[in-house]
Write a structure and sequence with these properties.
The protein folds into two domains: about 45 residues; about 210 residues, Orthogonal Bundle (MetI-like fold), CATH 1.10.3720. The protein has ten helices and no strands. It is globular.
Length: about 270
């Protein structure tokens, strides 16, 4: 009986490992192989495109700095994601509960999203300084739109028949919202969260490019100025790992939040 139990316990782990290898490790290995082939065949100078072994050597040499700067950038991304999601969910819920506010809120949301990111970043740095605050605000702004738009769209698509039935049963607007509209809108919110997790690093890194005292973005800026392309690629690799881990964490969370929601975009788990 014990071996059977062990198989049952280990089977999900084996399935998870297989999916990760198939969806992440193998494509990454193929990309690295293609990269190496391009460098060797076309004899690309290292300052233009360093070989993978040079990037690995730079990562090993600068590992303490990469970890420290990556931790700061990761903190900016996670906090910005949390703030952007809370604000997006709150604004979408307000627009759904109080319909007349949607005519004021949603156009403003679209206008904010339409502003070029690089045009807003210097203003945020001026207002909030060179520390974490300006990067968190920048990440929140980028995350805010997909969450707000997706969740508001989901809240607005309740089956009219269900709405009529709720009114006939004497349900209040709040009861209709929490018992009908909110569960029906969770798949749309899940799509918005997955989109937000994908674009979350953009705001933090752009904020660091414009003005920062720490972070992977600043590290890449300094490496670019010194033509240290291998250091730039090493920092990009750390940023890619952060992005993949964040997306995987959001996938796990959203599957628990709404297990019936369809998959959207590439998944890692």
């Amino acid at each position: 009986m014990r071996p059977t139990g062990e198989i049952r316990v280990s089977s999900p782990l084996i399935a998870l490992s297989t999916r990760i290898i198939a969806r992440l490790v193998l494509p990454a290995a193929g990309l690295v192989g293609l990269w190496w082939a391009v460098v060797v065949v076309f004899a690309v100078p290292p300052y233009m495109l360093p070989a993978p072994d040079r990037v690995v050597a730079a990562a090993i040499r600068l590992w303490p700095s990469l970890v420290a700067e990556g931790a700061i950038t990761g903190l900016e991304i996670v906090v910005g994601l949390a703030v952007g999601v809370v604000l997006g969910v709150g604004v979408a819920a307000l627009a759904a509960l109080v319909p007349w506010t949607a005519r004021l809120i949603m156009p403003a949301v679209v206008i904010v999203q339409a502003l070029p990111v690089f045009a807003v970043a210097p203003i945020l740095v001026l207002w909030f300084g060179f520390g974490l605050a300006s990067k968190i605000v920048m990440a929140s702004l980028i995350i805010f739109f997909p969450v707000t738009a997706a969740f508001h769209d989901g809240l607005s698509r309740l089956d009219p028949g269900l709405g009529d039935l709720a009114r006939l049963c004497g349900a209040s607007r709040a009861q209709t919202f929490f018992h009908l509209r909110l569960p029906a809108a969770l798949p749309a919110l899940v799509s918005g969260l997955r989109m937000a997790a994908t674009v979350a690093p953009i705001g933090a890194v752009i904020g660091e490019w414009v003005g920062a005292s720490h972070g992977l973005g600043l590290m890449m800026m300094h490496a670019n100025a010194r033509m240290q392309t291998d250091v730039m690629f090493a920092a990009l690799a750390v940023l890619a790992v952060l992005a993949v881990v964040l997306r995987a964490a959001v996938e796990l969370l959203t599957r628990r939040l709404a297990p019936w929601a369809p998959e959207s975009g590439p998944t890692f788990l």
